[in-house]
Sequence to fold (644 residues):
Amino acid sequence: MKDDCLYGLVAEFESDAQLKRAAEKAYNHGYRKMDGFAPFPVEGLAERLGKKNRIPLLVLLGGILGGCSAYFMQWFANVVSYPINIGGRPLHSWPAFIPVTFELTVLGASLTAFLAAFALSGLPQPYHPMFNLPEFARASQDRFFLCIEAADALFDAVQTRMFLEGLDPLMVAEVAK
Amino acid sequence: MIKTLRPNKKREPPMSQLGYPANLLAPGETYESVNETIGSIVLRNRQPAPWWVGFVFAFGLLMLFFFAVSWLLIRGVGIWGINIPVAWGFAIVNFVWWVGIGHAGTFISAILLLLFQHWRTAINRFAEAMTLFAVACAGLMPLLHLGRPWLFYYLFPYPDTMGLWPQFRSPLVWDVFAVGTYFTVSVLFFYLGLVPDLATIRDRARKTWQQKFYGVLALGWRNSAAHWQRHQIAYLLLAGLATPLVLSVHSVVSLDFAVAIVPGWHSTIFPPYFVAGAIYFGFAMVLNIVIPLRKIYHLESLITERYLNNMANVMFVTGLMVTYGYLIEAFMSWYSGDVFEEYMMLNRAFGPYGWIFWALMLCNVIIPQALWSARIRRNPVTLFTVALFINVGMWVERFVIVITSLSRDFTPSAWGTFFPTIWDWATLFGSVGLFLTLLFLFVRFFPMISISESRELVAEPQKANAL
Fold:
């Protein structure tokens, strides 16, 4: 396969423990553009691959935005836009505004969590090179994969293959772009 | 390596102190057996005969619902038995009942997730689906009760030409936001959990339409470590957000009553008592759905006895809380020294609707006492029966709260009676049809147990068998 058609090299493993070990070794070896694939969330795998996530911060911001806009909306409606005197009661009756503020805080935070989980992963994504590998279908069933991308600075078709084969995988394969 | 994943078959499964098998997964399950058991229900064409019987029955009821609603839209709410003083009839009874059913779903999927209760794994998916469909049924009820349902958007704050805003100080408007948020968050939570399983189904599908259908829904999920990391943190955060949300929703619903001054409604115990009641019969509804499904689809190896027992325990404990609520209501009506409160309680128990009150006591307080017995908790048939009584009982409870209280408030000259018409019943049973139809379609087209979480249990048998 020509190098510019190559997406990366993939090693297949039988268990989550093997994949975790492989990921750790690859990271320590200096590989950065790589990803692990497992049929269930393997604890600590993403950390071993050096992946970070910013979702908690985004969710906090989403919640604050939702809550503030809800409170502002109620204050604006009752104090500025349509003030109405009912038995001399205060227009800015904040305790009555709490339930809606709470609900919209939760709504803002939840929508952010949901959208961020997909958007940051680049989903929905109709095409991805990994699916060119027929064996990859088992990543969603019972097998574990480690892929080192050709775009990685250390990537070398021969060296990387030798490295992956040294990790005791079931097989190593090339993935076309 | 595979061998170590399989628990040794010769060893006896661990037993709990109460003497039921403690495992969440039958011995000998592998990744592939789990995938196959759950995935094949979705991918194979032929559904078992009970599915068809159930679906046809549910679909018939759904048609009844459409019929009742069409007639309602033509003639207006006068076709129902509502009147003045009982302006809130079946529609509100049904609304409160349906929205409560949803709560056990969120309780299972969110609160038990946060508490690391692994026994939620096999039941969280249909509990979530149940939540979704129940809240959809609930949301329809007040809309139909509006009289002009096509103007429901008046409830939302939007820049309208009348220059008006919703009354943000009213619990009825809080309800719109609470139920709307609850429905949205339930959809998000359900779909987020479903995506990895849709990818599993996509990769197992052999027919083109299935590959396309599940492929589109799976959004290109490829089980990458980065995807999983974001998925897990988002799922956990959604669970954390859904937990206070679920408590707030039924609290707000109860405020619809508690903020009013009607005797029998105006009570501070309502929010916690409504939430406990919701979880109580929500679990009953989960049991009523899970027990037949487990039997029809032979899922005993995934939904083990331990699940049933744990659900029965939660149901029983929340049931005792509800009983406490009844006692306190009766006590407070006497202790308040308020003549209207005292009369409300007497009227509730011995008035024209008295027999309904005693039916409620029978269904919700007396029959569930059978759950003290481990034999009854462990037998699916008896557990199913008790759960059915609780479901009926909780509907009756809402009837007692709404109808009995409204029919006799302060001035005897303003008293009235409510009698349901055939259209009231058609709407109630029709909404059950809507709920069941959606549930049957869900079971047919989507994996009803979380496949990825079941694989996690296979990978970590110590989690599956921890007590």
Summary: The helical segments of chain A are 16-29, 45-48, 55-81, 94-119, 157-165. The longest helix of chain A spans residues 55-81.
